[in-house]
TrEMBL record, chain A:
It comes from Streptomyces meridianus. This is Transport permease protein. The keyword Transmembrane helix applies. It is found in: Cell membrane; Membrane. InterPro entries: ABC2_TM, ABC2_TM_bact-type, ABC_2_transport, Nod_factor_ABC_transporter. PANTHER family: NODULATION PROTEIN J. Keywords: Antibiotic resistance, Cell membrane, Membrane, Transmembrane, Transmembrane helix, Transport. Residues 48-275 form the ABC transmembrane type-2 domain.
Automatic annotation (TrEMBL), chain B:
It holds the Pfam family ABC_tran. It is found in: Cell membrane. This is ATP-binding cassette domain-containing protein. It comes from the Bacteria. It is a peripheral membrane protein. Residues 5-235 form the ABC transporter domain. InterPro entries: AAA+_ATPase (IPR003593), ABC_transporter-like_ATP-bd (IPR003439), ABC_transporter-like_CS (IPR017871), ABC_transporter_ATP-binding (IPR050763), DrrA (IPR005894), P-loop_NTPase (IPR027417). Keywords: Antibiotic resistance, ATP-binding, Cell membrane, Membrane, Nucleotide-binding, Translocase, Transport.
């Protein structure tokens, strides 16, 4: 009997499901917020995280605008306008890698065991980590937009549209961070997380319309860019901040968020439950 | 409540490895149970099952009156757990770590802060409590970790190898904290690789090996079964080992243990007078000894007496079955891959 239950952990529902139910939803939210607060404190406390969050946007903006801007768009002022909404998506994606890294570090350090030995909702450490990361995305986006404005980036629409663009991009980060969570749960060690994550994030960001118009690219690349959800988010952000088509790209974006969540969220939660039970 | 912990027939299997092969143990309320065993014996797995981190494949356990499988949240409310590795947030201060736990236990902010300050003071950590944990020494980490498991004033405390890797001074500090807690009525289950630690702290000792309980009793019982002391001889010339072994056998009226690689002969003895007799015999035979000592029984001696095989060999035997030699006990928590 023991072999059977070991091979199929789902066959032992008493292990996890009732444990969740015994902690009320309201309390679960409270636990999650407490742990999100811890993760926010972490951002300020850990210089590496802070530097990552601040340096990356600055670096990408400066390098691409001044190094490639003239070549790609004729002059860097023009390039700045099209690049900034795209960089918003890219920066958020990069920041989402941190979610899995932080979770895996907690597991390796045993902090996770400590949380799990407390009478808190089993989902709280996961939800707390993801919520805390919203602050990191917002911080990175603020740095990016602040510097972009200083360089002369000008919004062609209104404040509400920009706000919607920012929320949409953060929503994308929250969606794709489940990929990061999944990697964080599967990876053997914290050191392994960024490597795996970046090898997935790079084709998503560079294989998109963020940096250059796909018109001059080979057909197979155009085909990939067409299905890459990142491109639709970039289109949506451009439409919302610079004018142009909004409804189509936004619908595409929301649709791809739903699909990605439907696939990744159950996988990530299952990996989490499995890791938590071993 | 009579028993703080009662476990029956706990089984946990990882793939083809039986980490627990039917462990029974009991901790009467207010007492300290020492779970003694070598690396890979199943000590950590036992603690993880009893503290609800792991669900058993078979068997049952009741901790603080609640079933670990059916009422895990109730169990968690009543227990404190200090793992083998300090499970603290390195970036936060000691104080912040304790406050975080208080807040997760739904204490109001002020109460959480007061409890954190109280624990730090109790453990002599008020001053370092304001610094980030990553600046702490091993002993300080362990004490803060211990404090973290006490925030909820647990009825039952699990300590997984609480002094492994600590210097003697820090070890003594941890010991006195555990004694103090026990005096206040906390029931304690502690795992250890050191017979001395179990002897110092525990009211009763359960010895486990390869996922099974191989002996249970008071420290004195176990020591009586292992001989109260061990006589160790290392002849200056390794070729004398068989002769020394024969001499010792004649003196104790039993078969001594010979470690050919180390060139050492050991035997359990009850009467320290044997030492001087041995010295005379070695002298008569013209054997010089590089090392000649009378010491307390080591875990190896206990294992030899209880299982007929030395602890090290028992652990090595496991690695032949396809697990790494250190097994789950030595691995970082949760880092082992689930078999499922």
């Amino acid at each position: 009997m023991s072999a059977a239950t070991a091979a199929n952990p789902v066959a032992n529902p008493a292990a996890s499901a009732p444990a969740m139910r015994q902690v009320g939803l309201g309390k679960a939210v409270g636990h999650s917020l407490t742990l999100a607060g811890r993760n926010i404190r972490y951002i300020v406390r850990s210089p590496a995280t802070l530097v990552d969050t601040i340096i990356q946007p600055v670096l990408f903006l400066v390098v691409f605008v001044f190094l490639f801007g003239g070549e790609v768009a004729g002059d860097w002022h023009t390039y700045l306008q099209t690049l900034v909404p795209g960089l918003m998506v890219q920066i958020t994606l990069y920041a989402s890698v941190g979610t899995g890294l932080a979770l895996n570090t907690d597991i390796a350090k045993g902090v996770f065991d400590r949380f799990r030995s407390l009478p808190i909702a089993r989902s709280a450490p996961l939800v707390g980590a993801v919520l805390g990361d919203v602050v990191r995305y917002a911080l990175a986006l603020t740095v990016l937009l602040g510097l972009a404005f200083a360089f002369g980036f000008r919004v062609q629409t209104d404040v509400l549209s920009v706000l919607f663009a920012v929320l949409l991009v953060i929503g994308f980060g929250l969606t794709l961070c489940w990929l990061s969570v999944l990697i964080g749960m599967v990876a053997e060690s914290p050191q392994a997380v960024p490597g795996i994550a970046m090898s997935l994030v790079l084709p998503l960001t560079f294989g998109s319309n963020i940096f250059a118009s796909p018109d001059t690219m080979p057909g197979w690349l155009q085909a990939w860019i067409e299905v890459n959800p990142v491109s639709h988010f970039v289109d949506a952000a451009r439409g919302l901040m610079l004018g142009g088509e909004v409804a189509g790209p936004v619908l595409w974006s929301l649709g791809s968020m739903a699909v990605i969540l439907a696939v990744l969220f159950p996988l990530a939660v299952r990996a989490y439950a499995r890791r938590a039970r071993s | 409540m009579t028993d703080a912990i009662r476990a029956e027939g706990l089984v946990k299997t990882y793939g083809s490895t039986r980490a627990l092969a039917g462990v029974d143990l009991t901790v009467p309320a207010g007492s300290i149970l020492g779970v003694l065993g070598p690396n890979g014996a199943g000590k950590t797995t036992t603690v993880r099952v009893l503290s609800t981190l792991l669900s058993p494949d078979a068997g049952s356990a009741v901790v603080a009156g609640h079933d670990v499988v059916r009422q895990p949240v109730a169990v968690r409310r009543a227990i404190g757990l200090t793992g083998q590795y300090a499970s603290l947030d390195e970036e936060l201060t000691g104080f912040e770590n304790l406050v975080l736990i208080g807040r997760l236990l739904e204490m109001p902010r002020r109460e959480a802060r007061a409890r954190a300050a109280e624990l730090l003071e109790q453990f002599g950590l008020t001053e370092p409590g304001a610094r980030a944990v990553k600046t702490y020494s091993g002993g300080m980490r362990r004490r803060v970790d211990l404090a973290a498991s006490l925030v909820n004033r647990p009825q039952v405390l699990f300590l997984d190898e609480p002094t492994t890797g600590l210097d003697p001074r820090s070890r003594n500090q941890v010991w006195s904290i555990v004694r103090e807690l026990s005096k206040e009525g906390t029931s304690v289950l502690l795992t250890t690789q050191y017979l001395e630690e179990a002897d110092q702290l525990a009211d009763r000792i359960t010895v486990i090996d390869q996922g099974r309980v191989v002996a249970e009793g008071q420290a004195d019982d176990l020591k009586r079964r292992t001989g109260s002391q061990t006589l160790l001889v290392r002849p200056g010339d390794a070729r004398d080992v068989p002769r020394v072994s024969r001499i010792l056998a004649a003196l104790i009226g039993g078969e001594p243990t010979v470690d050919e690689d180390a060139g050492v002969v050991t035997a359990p003895v009850d009467d320290p007078v044997l030492m001087s007799a041995l010295v005379r015999r070695l002298d008569e035979d013209g054997i010089t000894a590089d090392e000649l000592a009378l010491r307390l029984p080591s875990l190896d001696d206990v294992f030899l007496a209880l299982t007929g095989s030395p602890a090290e060999r028992a652990a090595d035997g496991r690695s032949a079955d396809g697990t790494d030699g250190t097994d789950g006990d030595a691995r970082s928590p949760m880092n082992e891959r689930s078999a499922a």
